[in-house]
Queue: 2 jobs
Job 1
Amino acid sequence: MGTQHPLNTIGKPVAKVDGRELVTGKARFTADMKLPGMVYGYQARSGVPSAKLLAIDTEKARRSDGVLDVFTAEDIPGPNLIGILPPFDQPVMADKEIRYAGETIALVVGETREQAKQGARKISPSYQVLTPILTVDDALKENARKIHPQGNITFSKELIKGDARKGLEDADVVVTGTYETSFQEHAYLEPEAVCAVPHGDNRITIYASCQSPFHLRGHIANNLGVPATRVKVVQAYTGGSFGGKDDVAVEIGILAGTAALKLNRPVMISHEREESIKGSNVRHAARIEYTTGAKKDGTLTARVAKVYLDGGAYASESPFVTMKALIHAAGPYVVDNVSVEVTTVYTNKTYAGAFRGFGVPQVTFASESQMDELAKELGMDPLALREKNGLKAGDLTATSQSYDSSVGFLETVRAIRTVRDRFTVEKNDDRYVYGTGVASLLQGISNGAEGVDVVGASVQMSQDGSVLVGCGLTELGQGSRTVFAQIASEVLGCNMDRVVVRQVDTDSVHDSGPTVASRTTTVGGMAVKKAAEQVAGSLKKMASLMFKIDEEHIELKEGFAVLKQDTNASIPLSEVATAAYWTGFPLMNLAFSQAPPVDYDHDTHQGDIYLAYNFGTHLMKVQIDTYTGEVRVLHHAAAHDVGRVVNPLGVTGQIEGASLIGYGLAHLERIEYADGIIRNPNFADYAVPSIKDRLPTETILIEDPTPNGPFGAKGVGEPPVAGAAAAFANAVADATGHRFRNLPVTREDITSVFRKEA
Amino acid sequence: MNIYFTCNGKQISLDVDPGIRVLDLLRDVLNLYGTKEGCGRGECGACTILMDGKAVNACLMYASKLDGREVLTIEGIEGEDGALHPVQESFLEEGAIQCGFCTPGMVLSTKALLDELPEPDTKEIEEALSGNMCRCTGYAKIIKAVEKSAERLQEKS
C-alpha cells in the first residue's frame, strides 16, 4: 500500500465534483452551444443495407429552403477512412458501396437543423441494389459475396491452453450447448453531437460528446488533411457513452469539420434518437457453441468454446472485442485445458463495436449457463461447483497468467452464499414459480497486451494552495473526475473543494489513449497519484526548510503541512506553496502511469495480459408469473472484488447501473431487423429499462488490493453487466425448469414454454 | 402569434411561430438549455418541465399552448441566493446523478410529485418517474434521492 496513515478521502462517500452544474442544468452539453453564425448539418443515410452506389443527385437538396451546401464522399479532403485498428475499413461517407442501411451518404448543411433535415430528405442516390448478407452463416458460406475486399471474416483468434481434446476424454461428465445473444443499443440519454468551429489561425476546434478525444483528433486531422495539432478536440459534458461515442463521434466530427472549413462558419451536428440508433455501433450479437468437461467431484477438465460474433458492416472495435471474448470465455476458473476460437464476421447491418463489457457479457452468459448445466448433471450445488474451481492467488488463468494478490474471487462466491442462505425457498403455486440463479465472472482491467496503457496526468498547485488536475481520460458520468479529485486530495493533503479536475481537451492534456476497459480509476488514477506525489515532494521539501526539520517528520493533511510529532505545529499549504514558488521548487508535474511490461504470445494467447482482473459473483432471485411471463426480480446481489473502494457512492452506482444494462440484455433489449432495416429505432419499440424495471441490487464490495492501482483500486465499470445478465438467465432456468439459451429471454419466450406444458 | 406566460417567475410576452415546440422555444428563444432533448417523441423525459405544476414533456407541446400558463424549468427551482432546491441537494448527496443528462427532468418530475404527494410510497415514486429514463444509475439511487427529498421538504414545512 505504501500509505502508513489512515486515508482521509479515499474510501469516503463523496458527491460528484461535477454534480452541481449537472443538477442545476448549467452544464453545457454539446447541443447546448449556440455560436454566432452557427449552422446545422444533417446526414442523408443510405436507407438500404447493401448496394453499389452509382451516383448521388444533390441538386434538389441544394435548392431546398435554407440549405447552404451539400457534401459527399469526394468532398472529404483526406482519405475518407476511419476505424480503430489499421488497416481502416470504414468510409466517413459511403463512396462506392453501401454496407448498412444507416450509412451516411451525404451531409446537408442548412441555416437551421430542420432546414438541413428537409434538404437531406431530397438527396437522391442511384443504387444497384445487392442482396444483403444478414446472418453470420450466410456471410461464412464459401461462395458468399465479399462485403469487404478481404472477405467476410473481420477477425479470428484462437486461444490454446493445454490439450482440450484430452481434457474432454478425461471427463466423467460433459455438457454442451449453443447460446445466442442479440444486438444491444447503448441508449445513452444524450444523442451524439459535435460542433466544429473554424478559427482564423488555421486551427479548428471540435466540441464533442465523446469518449476518447485523441482518437477523434487523429482521425479528424487525417481526414481534413491537416496536421493533428491544428485540431483541438474539447470533450463537452457527455451524456453517457458506455463505449458508444467513439466511432460515431469521429464520423460526425469529420463531417462537421469538413463543412466548417469550407463554409468558414461553426457547424453543429446533433443527432435525433432514430439516427443515434441506426447510425452508431451496437453490442455484437453472438452465437457460442460451448462444451465443458468435469470429473465426478466437479473438477473442470476442459472448456471448449467456438464463438461467432456478428460485427455488422465495419470492423470498429471488433478486433479487441474478439480478443476480450477469447480471453474471458473460460470464466474465473482454474482449467488446465482450454480451447477457444472467436470469429467476428461482417454482415450488412449496423456495425458492432465497444459496449460496456466488450464481449465478456456474451461469453459469460454461455460459460455460466454451462456451469449450472454441469452442476445439475453432477447433482452439485452451483455455488459449490464455482468455489471448487475458482481462481485463487497464484493460480493460472486461461492465458496462464498468475497474480500474487488481488484475486478476491472466492470471497465473492462466499459472500453470495451468505446472501443465499438468508432466504427461504419459496413454494411454487398454480400461477407463480420461483427460482434463484448465480453467475460468476472475471473482467480484465486495462488494455493490457491488447494495446497500450500509458496515461498522462498533470497536477499543479497554485500559490494559494488550490489544485488543478488534468488527465487524458474522460468523464462520461462514471465519476472519473471525482475519483481523480479524491486521489489528488489524498496525496496533497488538501480538501476536496480545493481541487479542480479540468475537462479534457487535446491541447492541454497528454494523449492517454481511449477511456475504455474499466481502466480509468486504475491506470488514470495511478497517473494522477504519481503527478500529485511529485508536487507533494516539493511541498514537503519546502516545509522541511520552513520547519528546519527533515522531510520525514512532515505530513500534508487537511490543508496544512504538519509536524507528525506535534500536530499543533502546522503551516497552511498556501504559505508552503507560495514559498515553494519563490524558492523555485516545481509546483506542477506531468506524470505517466504505465502498466508493467507484458509477455504475451499473440498466436496461442498465452502469457500475461491484464494488470488485474475484477472478479464477481451475482445472485438473482426471481418470481415468474406463468400466465403472463412477467419476471419479478425479488433480490439481486452483486459481489465484486474492486481492490480498494475509492468512492463508495461511485462504485455502488457503477455496479447498480451496469447491472441494469445486463438485465436489459438478458430480458428486455433487442435490436430488431427486417431485411437489414432496424424496425425499432426509438424508445417506444426498443425497451430500455425504466424505473419500474430497476433491480433491487445489494452491492457487496470485496477489497483485495492490487499493487497496480492507486491505493489498490481496480475498475468496476464493465464487469457487472456480465454478472447480472448471466445470473438472470440462470434464475429463470431454475424457476421454469427450462434452459433458455438465447438472450433476451423475453416474457413471450417464458409464456410459450408454459403454454406448451399446458 | 403573441403569447403571454410566466416562466420561472418572470412574465414573458413573445411573438412566436405557434408551430414550434415548447422545447425549442425554451432552448433557442429563452436560452434555457437545462431542458434537454433525448428522443423528441415523449419517450425519455429528458425535456420534462412543469406547466401549472404538472410534469409535461416539452418536446410534445406546441408553443401556442403556453399562453396563459405558468412554466417552471430547472433554471427556476434554485433559491434566490443560488442555494440548491432540496430535491437537487438530495440527488447530489445520494449519488443519483451520473452523466446528468436526465437529471433536470428527473428533478422536475420529483418536484411535481412531492408538491402533490409529500409522502409518496415507492409505487407512487415509480409511477411519477416512469416517464423519465436514466441509462446510467440503475435508478436505485434515484429512488433514494426522492425519498430523501421528501424528508427534507417535510422538515422545511
Note: The longest strand of chain B covers residues 2-7.
Job 2
Amino acid sequence: MKYQSQKIALAYFSVAMALFLVQVSGGLLAGWIYVSPNTLSDLVPFNIIRMLHTNSLIVWLLLGFFGAAYFLIPEEAEREIYSEKLAYLQLAILIIGTLGVVVTYLFNLFEGNWLLGKEGREFLEQPKWVKAGIVVAALIFLYNVTMTVLQGKKTAITNILLLGLWGLALLFLFSFYNPGNLALDKMYWWYVVHLWVEGVWELIMASILAYLMLKLTGVDREIVEKWLYVIVATALFSGILGTGHHYYWIGTPAYWQWIGSIFSSLEVIPFFAMMAFAFVMVWKGRRDHPNKAALLWSLGCATLAFFGAGVWGFMHTLHGVNFFTHGTQITAAHGHLAFYGAYVCLNLAVFSYAMPILRNRDPYNQVLNMASFWLMSSGMVFMTFVLTFAGTIQTHLQRVLGDYFMDVQDQLALFYWMRFGAGAVVVLGAILFVYAISVPRKEIIEPGEVSEAPAG
Amino acid sequence: MREVMTKSMTRNIFYGGSLFFLIIFLGLSVHSHLYILNTSTDADKLTDSVVAGKRIWEDHACVNCHTILGEGAYFAPEVANVMERWGVQNDHEAAFETLKGWMEAQPTGVEGRRQMPRFDLTDEQIRNLADFLIWTGNINSQGWPPNEAG
C-alpha cells in the first residue's frame, strides 16, 4: 500500500462482503419459496424477500465501487485522498440507510408515509429519507474524490471513473420523480435503471478493469488507456439509445422498436471489446503477477459479462422476439448472469486484488479463492441455463398458446428445483470467497522449487 | 490500432460521440413525454382515484411479485390486463366487486400454491386500485401483451 488513505477501501469492502452474503442468502430463500411456496408466507412474504435480495445487491455493488475508487484514485492521482474523515462519514450514512431499509421492509413500518415508508417502485423501494441519504453520501464522495483528482495527476482511468460516478449520482436524482401517470413513471424510471447498468456503470467497470489490467499484466499505460476510450465510446454510443429496448411496450412511441432493436444489438460490442481487451492484455503482458486469483476473477468478469449482458441480452432484445419473451423467466436468466458477470465478478476481482495489499500480506489464499470462483460461476451459469429453458417453455405456453400464468408456472417446477440447487452452490461459493479473503494466514500450497526449462 | 489512432483521438471521439447520442436521446425523450401525455394515455381519465390507486400499488410493493406491463418480479401474474382477463375492463363497479372478492380471499393457504398476502384494504382503497388497473389497461402499449393470459 503506497498511500495511507487507501486503507479507507478496507472498511468499504468489508461492509460490501457482509451485504453480499445477505444478498445471496436472500436469493436462496426466494428460490426456495419458488419450490415450497408456503414458506414464511404469513411472516415475510415473497415481495419483501425479493426487495432485500435486489436492494442489498445494488448497495453492496455501490459500496464496492466506492471502495475501489478510494483504493485506486490515490495511486492514479499520486496523492492521498482529500479527506479520510469525509470518506468514513459517507460510509456511516450508507450503513445507517441500509439498516433503515432492512428494518422498514422486514417489519413493514410506516406503510404509506411519504418520508418514512417504502416507495415501492422496483429497485427504488427505499424510503425517501434513505434516498436523500444516498444523495448526501454521493455528494460527499464526489466532492472528496474530485478534490483528490483535481489536485493530483489526471489519467484516463480516473477521468472515466469520475465521469461514471458523477453520472451515477446525477441519474439517481430521477428516482425522486414519480408522476401519477404510470407510462411517464416507467419512462423516467429507466433513466435510473438502464442508464445505470447499461450506461455509466459500464464506464466504472471499464475503468476499474483497465486499472486491474495495468497492474496485473504490466502492459504499457498508453495502450491500456487507448483501449479504455474505445470501449467506453462503444458503450455509450450503443447504450444511450439502447434505452429504447425498454420503451417497446410501456406507452412510448413505436419508433423505439427500431431504435431500441438496432442500438441495443450494438450493446454487445463494448462487452466483446472488454473481453478481447482483457485477454489480449494478459497475452501481451510480460508481468507474472503473483495474485492469480485476481487475474482469474478479472478474466472471468470480462467473459461472463460478455455472455450474460451481451449474448443473453441480445437473445431477447429484438422487438419481434421481446414481444413474446418480455417479462418471462428469460428476463430473469439474463438479469442474473449479466449482473453476476459484469458487476459481481468485477467487485470480487477488485477485492481479490486489493485486500492482500490493504492487509499487508501476500495474496493468501489463492487456491480457496479460485475454487470459490469456479463454484460461484458454475452455479450461476447453470442457473442461467435452467431459467432460460424455463423461460422458453413459459414463452411458448403462455405467450403463444395463451395458457394462464399459474398453470404454466406449475409445469416449470423441475426447473425451479434445479435453480434452487444452483443457487445453493452459489451461496457456498460466496461463503468460501469471504472466508478465503478474510481468514487464512497460510497458503495451502507451499511454493515449490521452480523447475528449469529443459535445455535445447 | 497504434498507427491509426492516438489516445487523444479516441478520447475526442468518446466525448464528442457520447454528447451527440445524448442530445438525440434527450430530443426523443421530449417527444416521447408529449406522446405519452397526448396520445398513448388518457389524461382526462387520470383521476385522483387512479393516482391514489397507483400509490396503493406502490405502498404494498406489489411489483415485487407481479409484473405490470411486463416489468416487475416474475412470481405472480401480469396485472396491466387483469381487468380484461376478468372481463370487467372499463366497468368500474364490476371491477371493484371482482377485485374485492379476489383480495379478500387471500391468502388461500392452499398447500403448494403461491400465497398472496392479505392487505386489509378499505373499500375506498380497493376502488382506487381497480380504477388504477383499468386506467393501466387502457395505455396504448403497442399491442402488448400478446394475449389475455398476460
Note: Chain A has a mean pLDDT of 95.
